[in-house]
Amino acid sequence: MKGDVGLRIIAPGIFSQLQDPGRYGQSKQGLSQGGVMDERAAGWANLLLKNSPNNALIEISFGLAEFEALTDLQLALTGAQMKALIVDRHLSTNIPQTNNCSFMLRKGQRLKLGFATSGARAYLAIKGGFDVPLKFASVSTVKRNFTGGLDGLGGQLKEGDLLSVFAQDSDVIQRSMSDKFIPDYDQPLTLNVIESYQADRFSTAQKAKFYATVFHVSAENDRMGMRLGGEPLDGPLAGIVSEGIALGSIQIPPDGLPIILLQDRQTLGGYPKIGCVARCDLSLLAQATVGKSIRFKPGCLAEEQLRYRRRLLFFNQF
Amino acid sequence: MQITAVNENCFLIQVADHIDLSLTDKIAYLTRQIELSLADSLLDITPSYSTVLVQYDLLKVAPLVVEKQLESIVFHCAQKNVPTGCNKVIELPVYYAPCVGWDLPALSAKTGLSVEQIITLHSDNHYRVCAVGFAPGFAFLAQVPQAISIARHRSPRAFVPAGSVAIADTQTAVYPSDGPGGWQLIGNCPSILFDLNQEPVSPFAVGDYVKFKPVSRTEFIDLGGKVIDER
Hints:
The structure holds 2 protein chains of 2 kinds.
Chain A: E1 4-11, E2 15-19, H1 39-47, E3 57-61, E4 66-69, E5 73-81, E6 85-87, E7 95-96, E8 101-105, E9 110-112, E10 118-126, E11 162-165, E12 189-195, H2 204-212, E13 215-221, E14 225-229, E15 243-244, E16 249-251, E17 259-261, E18 268-269, E19 273-277, H3 279-285, E20 293-298, H4 301-315
Parallel strand pairs in A: 12-20
Antiparallel strand pairs in A: 1-4, 1-11, 2-3, 3-10, 4-9, 5-8, 5-10, 6-7, 6-9, 12-19, 13-14, 13-20, 14-17, 15-18, 16-17, 16-19
Chain B: E1 2-7, E2 10-14, H1 23-38, E3 42-47, E4 51-56, H2 63-79, E5 89-94, H3 104-111, H4 115-123, E6 126-132, E7 139-142, E8 157-160, E9 164-168, E10 171-174, E11 179-181, E12 184-188, E13 209-214, H5 217-222
Parallel strand pairs in B: 5-13
Antiparallel strand pairs in B: 1-2, 2-4, 3-4, 6-7, 6-13, 7-10, 8-11, 9-10, 9-12
Helix pairs in contact in B: 1-2
């Protein structure tokens, strides 16, 4: 049966959105791509259920969300640690539910998440994906474009929303991530940089300072971009003719503090860019919270292309 | 023209490093050729004033293959005069009046031109779509006559109504949706310029021409236009 009502949003928490790998082909019309912030954690959530990485899932930012199963559902939860509990009104105590494995949420049971204690974003995937409306082949919620999401207008998930699911397979999948694949989001972060764009307009001294500085995640960070705090770079460059902005671009605006442009970034921009953060490293950046230390190191384009391609192949098994 | 990888799956084609209206034909041609040549392996393409950003699917094609394809397109584009005249002319009705063009009186005072003169200067001109971005369906149009060019507001307005026709330096544009904006407003276009239920979602493509046609208040209202007071 297609379109069985499956999961009810009891509380969206700080904020929760429907996401997938993003909306492509509309950049020349000015639409942002959107897409999951942590492609790795989202990829695992779907993989644990033998789903395609293109299946829609819920991106839960900072936690405090709660969901109820209206039918028996096979789910997987990955990403930030939010001390998940399964609440069953027939039982006197709640059952802790570990991250990074597939599990069954029975009809009437609720999955309750606390505030994120490690990392920022968790991913809740469902076997077969949510049956939700697509716009240009994507459900990705982009608030600033009024695009995607359950309402089709870029709205966040809200209390009482019902997410339909495709028919649930009768065979139950029991899979979990091996410990060696589970990242420690509390480690300091060093991001590989693919130098490009206006990199050769930065002086050797400016670049040396860029790589030597320990920046931190500032409070100005959202799905569009992350502004870093710290010692500003000297003598920032003049603006450039507006050009297309690739995912992970590191802009250096006149105040000398880098801004890393992320999934909901605008399509065009006129600040000079020193390069892009390696695609695979953006997953770790997506889990960084305010105050976290960030450093940069020069990366190798060919190696990063291989690493990213391997990741794509790995998550595209089903 | 220079082709460089900017990240794992994007190439940037740099046609020039300055704004020059004669580049627009080349950019529009490159964009069409790349769409045809990369076909299925193209994820997104972002043309702008002097660059084209090309994003491709690493699962479908190897970086070196894309680079060779782009080199070949760029080579052909540099060799010959690119075909022109395949771009459409989009005519847009505009109601030029202070009730919708909130900055029209100030522009008149600054330039010493009458409102009628400003309307004539702005509408008696074919503009070129140089880039689409900033917001969905927002087309950067060039070039506004020097006599009515005016800098952006120092601090942007929190609310600019959809359809607002505006000037920033020598560029002009129509705001496709309600939102914040810092450009100087001179009128309003009642046409719908961004609609997610249409494909394409906006009528503008880089290289297209735009012609503004002044309309009366009655025509504006008949075409669905709304007069919204400044908040």
